[in-house]
Amino acid sequence: MFYREAGHFRDNYQADMALFPIREDRIGVSLLLFAAFVAVPLLHLARIGPFSGDYLFNAILIPVLILSVAAIGLNVLVGYCGQISLGAGAFMGIGAYAAYNIAVRVPGMPLIGTFLLAGGVAAVAGVLFGIPSLRIKGLYLAVATLAAQFFFDWCFLRLGWVTNYTPSGSVSAPALVVFGWEADKPVERYLLVLTIAAAVAWGIANLVRGNIGRQWMATRDMDIAAEIIGIRPVEAKLTAFAVSSFILGLAGALWAFANLRSWEPYAFSIDRSFQLLFIVIIGGLGSIVGCFLGAAFIWLLPLVVEAVPRWLSIPISADAAANLTLAAFGVLILLTLIYEPHGLARVWSITKHKLRRWPFPY
Amino acid sequence: MTGNAASLAMSLAPMAPAMAHVAPAALASKPLLAVENVSLRFGGVKALSDVSFDIRAGEIRAIIGPNGAGKTSMLNCINGFYRPSSGHVALDGVRHRHLRPSLAARNGIARTFQNVALFKGMTTLDNIMTGRALKIRSSFLRQLVRHGAALREEIEHRRKVEEIIDFLEIQAIRKTPVGKLPYGLQKRVELGRALAMEPRLLLLDEPMAGMNLEEKEDMSRFIVEANQAFGTTITLIEHDIGVVMNLSDRIVVLNHGCKIADGTPEEVRCNPQVIDAYLGSGE
To answer: What span, in angstroms and rounded, lies between the C-alpha atoms of A72 and A94?
Structure first.
């Protein structure tokens, strides 16, 4: 009724292989991009409703977008290539500290160059720690990536040159200057992050629909069969580790530079790794839309849990709210695993399916 | 049907320039693959002992034998899953010392499995497209951008894959995840993925196991057409003796890891050792 595939005839393969083959999808995505890139900044300038202040940008939009980027990175590895990783936070940290060191030590380096190099450093680290994946699988690989997490946690804390010998261990990001444009207001940082998030989502959507993506998924689904059609598991796994870590590094640099502005090693601890894994699982393994949905969900849940008692005028202490959030997380993850193991992305596709048939049940 | 096969044959012509019009059994041609005194041992168990035979370009070669005769082990040696304890597998007269499955694939050997080995989370289309992995040349950056040359290449391969989909008559399940397909169709998709590699040698491990008569007839037709139209050399393991006798040009019979007969279906049918192996000796 609202949304249907019937009647959309595609007469060439290019149209059939497009990112959004259905017209309604194309319109929806264009509207969404328009809203994000144009309407939100305009509403902010016009000081309308919740868009007027900085709160929405600082506390919700920027972190959610950066976490979505990081989740896409982790999803390449876990969702598409089937290699479980508990070291996502560490690779974000590598990106953040690499970006910091490049910015401090290489004066005149453009910001985009800094971010790309930071991603590159994380990618190299990712490949090194991905080598065990050639011999071990599943839980054992998870333990190996956990080792990466603890190793890099230690590096960030103990190696003086990583933090440029800052006595407190806390470092601050330089000004964000992109091609002469200084992005210091929250709405400007939001636009920078949004652009990068859109570019990453588009690039990864292209990769996973192409030959490399098929090699990753083939390795995930049946590595023996992948090998008999000529795919080298070494190549497939290590490219997945490299691409995944590159994006995680990029997200880490963004998290540090555009969100936190000044940070301590704790920002990239194992908690971050688990948070990203939850995002990917709740959002949906092997889905890019799911990364955005999952990130929004995981980030907004604590805010909602905290706000509900306030709306209902129930007095609740900050500690209790924090514990309530944790409890709600636990329950939600259990419920997701039981009722919808394919995550929010699956819920989204079921919704579309229902919309297509509305008002008929089937 | 024949039209499909013919157009597919034409589009795949570079791979088999001369074979397309030659009779299935190009009996005079030199061996594509030679198995030379291969033995395979797992600890104390001898899976294969001193087996030699050859596979000639363009023929349909069957490997038969009772359960546990070593047929699948033989295929595993041919495409590099197992390394023979002694002896060699020579492809085009070249003995590869460290044949790995991915290297065998690069040398034009494709294979299907006894218990279907598809990529369950991917659609039929993606499964068969994955079969073209070795043919796609676009660099990483081009695939990232997916415009111009990379997109044209992807469409070019999609066209080839669609020809295979037409040939196997699986158009309707193009976009269905293969995990949801019934067994018979999964077998067909697996054959499609192997054909997408444009192999010179296609190894089929029990392509008709667990199928009903109609499905067996379809599968036989696909095998014969693949052999005749594309000139693909086929080696198959099959338990349905009727099918084997009808399809194959030559048959190797294994029993307890030893070769007990090798020849045309008629020769094998009359071989007393073969009759003993299948029916038991009359002692």
So the answer is: 17
B59 belongs to a structural domain: yes
| B contacts of A341 (beta carbons < 8 Å) | none
Per the CB < 8 A criterion, the answer to whether A200 and A247 are in contact is yes
CA angle in degrees (0–180, nearest 5) for A291-A297-A300: 135
Same-domain status, B205 and B102: yes
- A78 inside domain: yes
Report if pTM > 0.90: no
Let me know if residue A118 belongs to a domain: yes
Residue range A172-228, pLDDT digits in tens: 888 888 888 888 889 999 999 999 999 999 999 999 999 999 999 999 999 889 999
Q: CB distance A229–B162 less than 8 Å?
A: no
Tokens of A149: 């997490």
Q: Are residues B225 and B255 in the same domain?
A: yes
Residue of B100, B136, B145 lying closest to A211 (CB–CB):
B136
| Cβ neighbours of residue A273 closer than 8 Å, sequence gap 6 or more | A85, A86, A87, A88, A89, A90, A149
Strands (E) in chain A, as ranges, are 171-172, 177-178, 181-182, 262-263
Contact with chain A for residue B149, Cβ under 8 A: no
Residues B87 and B14 in one domain: yes
Q: What ipTM was assigned to the predicted interfaces of this complex?
A: 0.85
